Amino acid sequence: MVAPLLHWLYFPKRSAKTPSQRTTVPLHLVLIVPFVLLSTGAVGIVGYLSWRSGQRAISDVVEQLQAKIGDHIEEKLTVYLETPHLINRINADAVQRGELNVTSRTSERYLWQQIQRFESVSWIYYGSEQEGSFVGITRANPDRSLQIVVNDATTNFEGHYYTVDSQGNRQQRVQVISSIYDARSRPWYQTAVQKRQASWSEIYQTFELPSLIISAALPLYNTSGDVLGVVGADLDLEDISHFLASLEISPSGQAFIVERSGQLVASSASETPYRFNERLRQPQRLLAIESTDRLIQSAARHLNQQFGSLDSILGEQQLDFYLSGQRQFLRVLPFRDRRGIDWLIVVVVPESDFIAQIYAQRRTTIVLCTLALLGTIALGLWMSRWISYPIQQLSQASGLLAQGDWHEPLNEDSPITELQVLTHSFNYTATQLQQSFCRVRTALEESQEKFTDSEARFRHAFHDAPIGMALIGLDDRWLQVNPMLCDMLGYPETELLTMTASTLVHPDDLSKLNHNIQQLSQSDDRNAQVELRYCCQDGRVAWGRLSLSLVRDVEDCPCYYVAQIQDITEQHAIDRMKNEFISIVSHELRTPLTAIRGFLGLLDTGIYDNKPDKAKHMITQALTNSDRLVRLVNDILELERQSSGRVQWVMEVCQAATLINQAIAGMQSIADEALINLVVSSATGSVWAAPDAMIQTLTNLLSNAIKFSPPHSIITLSAQPHLNHVLFQVKDQGRGIPDDKLEMIFERFQQVDVSDARQKGGTGLGLAICQSIIHQHGGKIWVESHIGVGSTFYFTIPSSPSSL
After folding, report:
1. Topology of domain 464-563, per CATH?
2. Could you say which of 407, 499, 691, 742 is the most buried, measured as most Cβ atoms within 10 Å of its Cβ?
3. What is the CATH number of domain 573-643?
4. Is 585 within 8 Å of 496 (Cβ atoms)?
């Protein structure tokens, strides 16, 4: 009933717990725990910051290392991959000058001189468009010695390999490739001709060794734009792997280069970027995720998971991932040139290569923290013992003093000044208290008898009060309730005392209650009164007039509330019914009376003296309204008579068929006049009821059905026995009732259309009378309806005892 929040705002909070019920902490813990927490926290924070600083330092060092290695690889690749194109431009000029062709021995010496100047390439060659002839020089044999290679008409387009002397002249033929070779069919040739500019071929297999190479090719054209041939130079990818392996990354770090397809180009691991297929007798490219090196494999998988596709990596990326619980730093650097190279340079460095020193520092930090913690605990225990022992003596003495058993004063010789003063004050206070106890004990014994008599009178008046009374704490709890309040709210006393008072107030009335409480606490008013709705245990809502008083102590501090709650539910119901009845009846009476007064006034003026037909019509209308008033008064009296309980029904066994036939007989003439057929579909079973009341109910339902049914329609009546009752039905083919009116039409003066009272002559009480009769017989009544189809009224009456 009293919101706790208001008490926190207006009254000081008081604890209801006694010292023995509160949670207590020993003094030595109060003294030692802060030392331990502060020391542990300080050392822990320092250790954590040191650890985080070390990790950040590692990250910075690794990022710098990876950036440096990535830049070094990029610079090396730039120079490495530019060399073949430089050779091609030089050779293109040589072809234009006639120094290089496929038939001259001078061309072979020219190529021999050139390959010695550029040791990074494994092939330098020229392929002619005429017949696909080819001349080149290579060091791509196992001993890396130079050999001249010729494929032309003189060799029947077979590959002839010749050793060379110190002057670059062709010597002994050491190998013949028996397959027909046409330079125009090779990937490097076709790529250059197709792109019509300097370009790179796809990575492909060499004829001599199971290795992979990439060719730089430059197409040559005459003045007419016809292809003369293609000059080219090859790079062995294994040279790039050797370069990557020579880099000082970290003890476990790896660097590798992949194409956007995910295939390895080169790596620093001790593996080739291809697998030799024994069945096909040729090498096959290796995907990075298939690498035998676990670090390279995991890094490639992480890139695929992170970006979905390597094509999505557009710029330099710094990432990390975990492998077997260890953090790995990953840096990706795209590498492109204008001739078609689009690779990714990847550098992977495990954090574990740099974290050994961090682990050593962490172990040192843990040892120092442990020593500091143990020292703090030992110091704290000693200090707490030294400080708390005299205080414990004071605590024990105060307990004995409270029990009245303290007699000996405490020793005031303490090394701590504050404790010495405190002990002296305690001894002096204890002496004064003992003297006061004696005086208070005498006064209490004298007042005890007076208080006992007053308390008995209060309890008697509280318990036997004719209205609800209660004591309510400042925390909104019931402290004490009398039986009258329990009866009003429907709760037993034990359950009510476990609840808060405000939970029983209707939610819509809480604002009124809180306003009164605020007014009572902030003003000098001793009493506040308000009418509230209370939610009872059985679900009903009871009205109560609450008179609330605030009890204060001698210091004017609030203690509790005294509440008086008078049950005014019945008074509210009577007032509501009276107002409703007066409003409706005055309206229903005023309408026909006004019409009758108007008709009689017109006749009194004499204007219709010479118009007998008009005068007769006026008199007919006045009689009709008079009949309506009579019906209204009769229905009101009948409904009031039933509601008051003064009707004594004479119950007997009635046959359902007999009741229906008698009701039809009484309404047949009205039905014939309205051109409506009354039909009984089936009528079986017997009921225990007052026959006149049942006929009145059926007659009212038939009257309504006839009023709202169109001519030549059918009204069907039926009665069917069920388990312990008989179900009656009255079904018409009228206009129907809207869904939102189905419950309302059984209330007093309620009609589907307000014009029905004037057009159909109804009073709006017929269905209310039917409902009252059925309920007093222990039955139920309801209606089902569909607009434009019709309505069916149902009601049940208990079966006769003989039929059960």
Report:
1. Beta-Lactamase (3.30.450)
2. 691
3. 1.10.287.130
4. no
